[in-house]
Structure formats: structure tokens, C-alpha cells
Amino acid sequence: MAAETASPSDNEVVKLALEERSSFGLIVERYQEKLSRYVTRLGIKDSDDRDDVLQEVFIKVYRNLNDYDEHYSFSAWIYRIAHNEAISWYRKKKVRPEGNLVVDSEEVLAFLNNNEEDAAVRLDQKINAAYLEDALAKLDPKYQAVLILRYFEHLEYEEISDVLELPTGTVGTLIHRAKKQLREALEKYE
């Protein structure tokens, strides 16, 4: 009975979409919000621009779904496409990223007091989120990308490796260096 209520895996959804193209909407439903959040964190904050980028992402996914290799993580594959589309958007617009939206990431601020009823704590969380957003925006883009993928999108090192097309060891090194830079940047706010 539990198998009946369990949602299908990404690979099962891909197979279904390949068999019946009208099922592609399942992929969009599953990833639209996640990719929208990711693209926003990469700095595309205008909703129209973000929608344009997402539209391009899903068009590319639709066109290239036959090329997806099921031996790899589908989420890493689709995040790679979103990452590339965001970079392409910046190149076309000749603009730099606007920073990262981090206010909604409670996991990053987990070191704060857990008393949700305390108004002062909620205010501190907003202030700390603003500091974190500012500190992230000042990091080198390669460090921003690994931190966003690891701590906001919750991807594993292997998936980040696939998204950024870097060796897994390099991802670990970048995350280590990024955390060090972020700690140093946040110390300025203490």
C-alpha cells in the first residue's frame, strides 16, 4: 500500500515523459519552484526575467530529454541546465548577478535561538539573513555557486560536481574555502 502512495522517482517521471510527452508537465511541477528559487539565488530577482530563464530551461529539458543518461542524477542534470541558462542570461544582458536571496533559508540560520515565539529572535533572524545575503553577494561567484547548491538546494557533492562540471574533490575544496570566506565576511557584522 505504501508503494501506491509513494511519488515516482525522477527516473520514472523521465521515462513516463519520454513515452508520453504530455507527461512532461510532471517534470515542470516537480522542478519549477526549486529551479525558480535557485535562479533567484543566483541573482535573477525580476520575476519576468526569472520566468524567461525558466522557460528556456524547460524548453531545453524538453528538447534534450532523450539525451539524459539515467545513470546520473536527473536533479543534477536539470540544475546544470538552469545554471547554464542563468549564466547565458547574464551574458545576454551584460549584467552581473544581483546577489542571493537567503532570507527563506532557515537551515543556514539554524545556529540562532530556536524560540520561534520570541519577537526579538525573529528580528535577529531577519537581520542575520540580511547580513548573510550581503556577505554571500561579496563572495567570488564560484564560491557563491557551491554554497548555494550545497546549503540552499541541498545537493550532494557528486551532484554539485555534475552541475558545475568540476571534479568532486574540487567541489569539496571550493566549499571549504567558501565557508572560510563567508565566515570572514560575517565576522565584519559582529
TrEMBL record:
Alphabetized UniProt keyword annotations: Sigma factor, Transcription, Transcription regulation
Domain RNA polymerase sigma-70 region: 27-94
Family: Belongs to the sigma-70 factor family. ECF subfamily.
GO process terms (BP): DNA-templated transcription initiation
InterPro entries: RNA_pol_sigma-70-like (IPR039425), RNA_pol_sigma-70_dom (IPR014284), RNA_pol_sigma70_r2 (IPR007627), RNA_pol_sigma70_r4_t2 (IPR013249), RNA_pol_sigma_r2 (IPR013325), RNA_pol_sigma_r3/r4-like (IPR013324), WH-like_DNA-bd_sf (IPR036388)
One MF annotation (Gene Ontology) recorded for this entry: sigma factor activity
Domain RNA polymerase sigma factor 70 region 4 type residues, every copy: 131-182
Stretch forming the signal peptide: none
Protein name: RNA polymerase sigma factor
Pfam family, one: Sigma70_r4_2
Domain of life: Bacteria
